[in-house]
Amino acid sequence: MTVVYEDNHIIIVNKTASEIVQGDKTGDIPLSETVKLYLKEKYQKPGNVFIGVVHRLDRPVSGLVVLAKTGKSLSRLNEMFRTGQVKKTYWAIVKNQPPAEEDTLTHYLVRNEKQNKSYAYDTEKPGSKQAVLHYRVLTRSDNYYLLEVDLKTGRHHQIRCQLAKIGCPIKGDLKYGFPRSNPDGSISLHARRVSFEHPVSHKLIEIEAPVPEDNLWNALTTPLKTI
């Protein structure tokens, strides 16, 4: 992880695709603990360091994670994420051409806990939750398309599931139908940008995360050619 923003109340990091945000059954050290250690060493804090997790990224996804450094900012950020006051923009690489250059997708997602997978439907189903996102094609190469995705709701595996539903599984995402994994186990989905009003100072925070160091990411994003 790389720290991209920090003040007294929040810290924003650019996580790598291999890091987990919170502890799970693998027993691997989660991002929250890595950030605690970073703060403990940076400020030479003798006791426990407080870090509050307000949202997560799936393990194989890279990009921006916002963490709270105080209880006050944690409760306010939780409410802001819950009510959609945090604008999140993702970049995704897909192999298949999307049906349109730009579109808003609305599906109904049903989560299967046992499979740790969500299924998208065009109509409401028992136990489903509405999922809405907007995508547009940013650039293309001979074999791949770079999409910018604005999340309107925050559902389990939402981008992965909805893009797969329109025939565009994310590169490397075996779970949602891409035929091959990426060599490093990542999927080509990156939390590129967050924008929100600071929970304490109320100033506008807008942060962008550099894309992973990877030939395909570099080819599609540098320089970012407009269609």
Task: Write a short abstract of this structure.
This protein is an alpha+beta fold. 18% of the residues lie in helices and 34% in strands.
Q: Classify the secondary structure makeup into a structural class.
A: alpha+beta
Rounded radius of gyration (Å):
18 Å
Low-confidence stretches: none
Overall pLDDT score: 94
Number of helices: 4
Number of strands: 11
Q: How many angstroms separate the termini?
A: 32 Å
Which band does the percent of strand residues land in?
A: 25-35%
How would a textbook summarize the main sheet? 11 strands, mixed
Helix and strand pattern = EEHEEHEEEEEHEEH
The coarse overall form would be globular
Helix content: 10-25%
Description:
With 227 residues, the chain is of the alpha+beta class. The chain has helices at 31-43, 71-82, 158-165, 215-221, and strands at residues 2-6, 10-15, 52-53, 62-68, 87-94, 102-112, 117-121, 129-140, 145-151, 189-197, 204-208. Strands 1, 2, 3, 4, 5, 6, 7, 8, 9, 10 and 11 form an 11-stranded mixed β-sheet that branches. A hairpin with a 4-residue loop joins β8 and β9. The longest helix has 13 residues, at 31-43.
List keywords for this structure.
single chain; 4 helices; alpha+beta; 227 residues
Give the arrangement of secondary structure elements.
Blueprint: E1 2-6, E2 10-15, H1 31-43, E3 52-53, E4 62-68, H2 71-82, E5 87-94, E6 102-112, E7 117-121, E8 129-140, E9 145-151, H3 158-165, E10 189-197, E11 204-208, H4 215-221
Parallel strand pairs: 4-10
Antiparallel strand pairs: 1-2, 2-4, 3-4, 5-9, 5-10, 6-7, 6-8, 8-9, 10-11
